[in-house]
Amino acid sequence: MKKMALLGMMGLSILFGCSKKDSNQAATGSWYTSSNESSSSTSSSSQTEGNEKTMSNNSIYDIVLEKLRNDTSDTPATHYAYYDIDGNGQDELFSGRYWESTGTVEFAALYYDNNGVADYLAQSYVASSGGYREATNIYTDGTIITAKWMSTGTEMEDTQYQLRADNSGIDTIKSATVPIGKDVELTDYFDVKNKETFDFSVLAWQPLVSEQANSDDLDVNQILSGNYESLVGKWVNGKGDTLTISADGTINEDGVIRSAGKNDNRLVYLAAGSNNGAPGGFAIGLFPIGVENPLGDYSDTSKPRLVV
């Protein structure tokens, strides 16, 4: 789709409009410290076999998915998956983050059914500063063990939870202070020796594409994760200058997107340059529908825009 454009103030070129492609993609997943190849799976399934399966009410997670889609933090979730961990007929919700460097989706957080309401349970987290960490182990009977520690510390604060089979909440089974060391085993502190570890390869990750992206807007969360689908197409300004962006990040054949990030105003931008590795480059500011340029311009905020 050809994109309309305007010329902004201060010599900035402002380009707007976008075209869409199907951004669904299969991805591998990992949990806690291990990574496994993903395999074909339905979005609602169980590792516990049975002759009958109750229909899971996944609509309770809609509010969580909407919040994840609108997350503006530095490391937002990019994918999600439903899975019935303990085989009781009700799916849990997993969120994940896509890493372009490895092509995998890493576990981000876990949500569960608490009396018909989606509730947060555990996450994998590394603070951008300060050294705080969180990690999670999960088992097929609904046992969850969380660990919290500082990167400079010598101990972890671990807690064992149990999902209730009737979806009425969780039980806290045990808490323990566990020393950090290569010879330390969870089985030394928690009764999980005979429990089956959850197999993450069964997760069918789906892109957490926002409604914004479906309406031809820029999907900044996907862009930050390395998915440039919402940028694909020809962007044109009022002078007729164009930027043609491809899904692989190529710009006008001889340029390339090198990275995406956020500036001091929490606005998303692209660092771009020559695809032959030559020094130098340029920045592209991204302005989804309704987002104004804090530096000021006369662009149409009813359309997605790029500022070069």
Summarize, please.
The protein is mainly beta and 308 residues long. The chain has helices spanning 62-69, 211-214, 220-224; strands at residues 5-7, 13-16, 28-31, 34-36, 79-83, 92-99, 104-114, 117-123, 125-126, 132-138, 143-150, 155-163, 170-179, 206-207, 233-236, 242-245, 250-251, 255-262, 268-274, 282-287, 305-307. The strands form four sheets. A seven-stranded antiparallel β-sheet has the order 1-2-21-20-19-18-17.
Give the low-confidence spans.
1-12, 16-53
The gross shape turns out to be elongated
Number of strands: 21
Order of helices and strands: EEEEHEEEEEEEEEEHHEEEEEEE
Largest sheet: 7 strands, antiparallel
Strand order of the largest sheet: 1-2-21-20-19-18-17
- What is the subunit organization of this protein? single chain
The class by helix and strand makeup works out as mainly beta
* % residues in beta strands: 35-45%
The amount of helix comes to under 10%
The value of Rg in angstroms is 22 Å
Number of helices: 3
Q: Quick check: average pLDDT? A: 80
**Distance N to C terminus:** 20 Å
Domain count, please report it.
Answer: 2
